[in-house]
């Protein structure tokens, strides 16, 4: 939201104290998971990062996309939240899928800086968020075969908005 200058109030939900299971939070997300948002302008409550990204992109990001671009953005968000997430965090899939997906993504990023169009979109947010977890969850993973992914992660880590939110 900060990247697209969308006003927001950050609310810290303490998972260690199980605040995500409090009745007040379960009204926002009945599954007790993060993230979730409430749009005070219309009362809409959303959970699931992909749905949140699409909503913010379509309603607040001041981006003009035709139907084809919106479909491409949606495709990348769904890819990140399903295919990429499973390849990274489901051990039985990581060994088989990780090298193939990383090689393909690395190839894509050798050809272009952004996944859809010529500017950063919700698609880039979704994919770079998962790729940004690599050095956190797999600090010993050798990513030297994927220099474009390494460069993307460095750009992400050097982004002031990313640094601010990750320090919260």
Overview of the molecule:
The protein is mainly alpha-helical. It has a domain at 67-167: Glutathione S-transferase Yfyf (Class Pi), Chain A, domain 2 (Up-down Bundle). The protein is built from eight helices and two strands. A two-stranded antiparallel sheet has the order 1-2. It is globular and about 45 Å long. It starts with 22 loop residues before the first helix and ends with a helix. The mean pLDDT is 90.
CATH architecture of the domain at 67-167: Up-down Bundle
Q: CATH class of the domain at 67-167, please?
A: Mainly Alpha
What structural class results from the helix and strand content?
mainly alpha
Helix segment tally: 8
Mean pLDDT: 90
Which stretches are low in confidence, meaning pLDDT under 50 for 5 or more residues running?
none
Largest sheet: 2 strands, antiparallel
Give the N-terminus to C-terminus distance in angstroms: 14 Å
Order of helices and strands: HEEHHHHHHH
| Approximate strand percentage | under 5%
Query: Measured on Cα atoms, how large is the radius of gyration?
Result: 17 Å
- How many beta strands in the DSSP annotation? 2
Strand order of the biggest β-sheet: 1-2
What fold name goes in the CATH topology slot of the domain at 67-167?
Glutathione S-transferase Yfyf (Class Pi), Chain A, domain 2
The amount of helix comes to 55-70%
Question: What global shape is seen?
Answer: globular
């Amino acid at each position: 939201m900060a990247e697209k200058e969308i006003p927001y109030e950050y609310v810290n939900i303490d998972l260690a104290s199980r605040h995500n299971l409090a009745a007040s939070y379960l009204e926002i997300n009945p599954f007790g998971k993060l993230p979730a948002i409430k749009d005070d302008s219309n009362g809409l409550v959303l959970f699931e990062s992909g749905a949140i990204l699409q909503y913010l992109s379509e309603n607040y990001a001041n981006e003009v996309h035709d139907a084809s671009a919106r479909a491409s953005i949606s495709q990348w968000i769904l890819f990140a939240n399903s295919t990429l997430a499973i390849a990274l965090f489901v051990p039985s899939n990581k060994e088989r899928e990780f090298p193939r997906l990383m090689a393909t993504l690395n190839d894509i990023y050798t050809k272009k800086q952004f996944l859809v169009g010529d500017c950063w979109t919700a698609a880039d947010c979704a994919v770079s968020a998962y790729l940004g977890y690599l050095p956190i969850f797999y600090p010993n993973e050798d990513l030297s075969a994927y220099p474009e992914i390494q460069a993307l992660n460095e750009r992400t880590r050097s982004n002031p908005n990313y640094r601010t939110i990750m320090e919260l």
